[in-house]
Amino acid sequence: MASLCLASLIGWATPYATVAAADVMGRIRDSQVLTLGYMDGFAPFSSGNEQAPQGYAVELCRAVAERLRQTPGFAGLQVRWRALPEQEVARSLSEGQVDLFCTPAVETLARRKTLDFSIPVFTSGLAAMVRRDAPATLLGPLNGRAGDSGPRWRATINAGLSKHSFAVLQGTVSSDWARQRIRQLGLQSTLQEVPTYQEGVRRVAAREVDAFLGDRMVLLAYQAGQAEREQLWVPDRLFDMHQVALAMARGDEDFRLLVDSALSQVLAGQRGEELYTRYLGPQSAQDRLLQGLYPLPD
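Request: output the structure for the sequence above.
Response:
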């Protein structure tokens, strides 16, 4: 299981000072092979071996391959999957070893110096994992049902969040954020720092803490891999948010347009909703709103 936050993948350092424009379409046309990269162990977005990967983002990449086969000159296209360790993602894309990376990541200004990104495919951000049988005084505020219509963690929800225990990943933005909010609101809550996502999830499952704060995408991935996953819950509410997308080599606008066209067609239609439900569960009103913002019009 990947123990990382999608907002700060440590292996995504800029590999080169300058990067020549890629000719991804030309390379694929010549070889008739589309190489799709992904990170294993990141269910429900990408997981499994190279012969049969699966996940929400993997299915989106399959839709890109289908769209490419419909393009003149690509009728004989074959798809190859390549599982990548985190630290090899940027280099593999920039060097043309992989054409599209099918584990969503945050588009940052630093990454845009060497890579291009598709339209967003999901919204992640700072969220909480709790047990489904947690008290309503905790579940309500964490899921936005505290009667407050103002900014997150207003004083109106103090009563719900106070006197509960929270875990955060040590040395991260979520740790700083949680400490600041607890101090600002005067909550009588305890905060534990944990070294890994795995430990934070374990403490929630074992009832050692009431909630674990972390990146929603990572929390969903860990929930999917837990034997107690039916007892765990990641509410929709985001205390901070960022969109994630599919990365590719920089400079081939034709390939990027094709990727965005394929993704827009899927995300705007019934297939997109079916894929979301299959891998991520039924869409909430917030999910439907966010998903509707990603596709580009024809």
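The CA atoms of residues 236 and 286 lie 8 Å apart.
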